[in-house]
Amino acid sequence: MAALTRLSLVFSAAPPPSSQRHNCGCVALSISIPLARKLPDSSTLSSRCSSSFSVPSQFRNNKGFRRARVVSASTAGLPPSTVLVTGAGGRTGQIVYRKLKERSDQFVARGLVRTEESKEKIGAADDVFVGDIRDAASVIPVIQGIDALIILTSAVPKMKPGLDPSKGERPEFYFEDGAYPEQVDWIGQKNQIDAAKAAEVKQIVLVGSMGGTNPNNPLNSIGNGNILVWKRKAEQYLADSGIPYTIIRAGGLQDKEGGIRELLIGKDDELLQTETRTIARADVAEVCIQALHYEEAKFKAFDLSSKPEGTGTPTKDFKALFPQITTRF
Ligand SMILES: NC(=O)c1ccc[n+]([C@@H]2O[C@H](COP(=O)([O-])OP(=O)(O)OC[C@H]3O[C@@H](n4cnc5c(N)ncnc54)[C@H](OP(=O)(O)O)[C@@H]3O)[C@@H](O)[C@H]2O)c1
């Protein structure tokens, strides 16, 4: 079987406002592409990502300010909460999982991955469970006893093999049978939400995608999957569930260092009309975790991107970030 690796596919979701735009359309999707040799995997990429946030005085040492640890004043002194991240073998999911493990004073981390291979990739610890979100029965046990759930599962389109770029051939994509967005992004997310509700989970953070306000968004035509439609349906289901939720609709995801850019909050895909439509996976991961700390992040849905590195002021103060969100859906 050919080795598969993930690349990001970027599509134009809105007409470029200026002729200088060359990376237009900040919504992108992961795809699996058959390769003869595997590219450096996402764990290599994410291990380069690091957070650099200021810390409260109790974590400073006498040599100055430490940059490694992010502690929220709102949870200091509380017992650690148990947090499950699903899609923990994915590129954003594994960053979230690693960050949760690093903050063991605040969190007891749990991960759900689809395969033993993914479990190995993230260290194969006992707190990583193997299960398939399309199968409600395999989701229920891992959700028992958790305080919060971070959903980072997603259908992933694959590129048909045999493409010859030298002939100018355009790539074609497909979803495997049973792994269409309807099954993964709708049924799979719904299974998680239902199980979380039954287990009285206190908060769900769901990472979705910008572009969902336009049914004709080009991402919907990939593999006839209507991926943004099904993602949106799951978001609506979560918002209607009664469980405190935070829905993060990310812009185009990039494997870049986190913590060094100013984050931008948006609504209704308005950020797609601007030049700032991308965000580092590490920043999305950090926002997922910070959302667990602040009441202001609950019952909110928002678009998320960032300014380019070197412009603006890197976001450090999440307590100030979440009140900027004005939208419940
Ligand atoms: N790519 C972008 O530019 C972009 C832009 C905006 C939003 N987003 C969204 O942001 C989120 C994170 O993206 P990402 O690129 O970091 O994710 P990713 O690497 O594609 O990870 C998706 C994860 O979902 C898991 N998964 C798929 N089907 C599953 C199933 N049936 N049961 C259990 N797990 C399953 C996959 O497991 P396996 O590894 O085992 O297959 C994979 O680990 C996704 O919702 C994505 O759609 C992406």
Characterization of the model:
The chain is α/β, with parallel strands linked by helices and 329 residues long. It has a single domain, classed as NAD(P)-binding Rossmann-like Domain (Rossmann fold). Helix content is 23%, strand content 21%. The strands form four sheets. It has an eight-stranded mixed β-sheet, sandwiched between helices. Helix 2 packs across helix 7, helix 4 runs parallel beside helix 5 and helix 5 packs parallel to helix 6. The longest helix is centred in the middle third of the chain and has 18 residues. The chain is globular. The N terminus is likely disordered. NADP nicotinamide-adenine-dinucleotide phosphate binds next to strand 1, strand 2, helix 5, strand 9 and strand 11. This is NAD(P)-binding domain-containing protein. One of its GO terms (cellular component) is chloroplast. GO terms for molecular function: oxidoreductase activity. It comes from Rubroshorea leprosula. Belongs to the NAD(P)-dependent epimerase/dehydratase family.
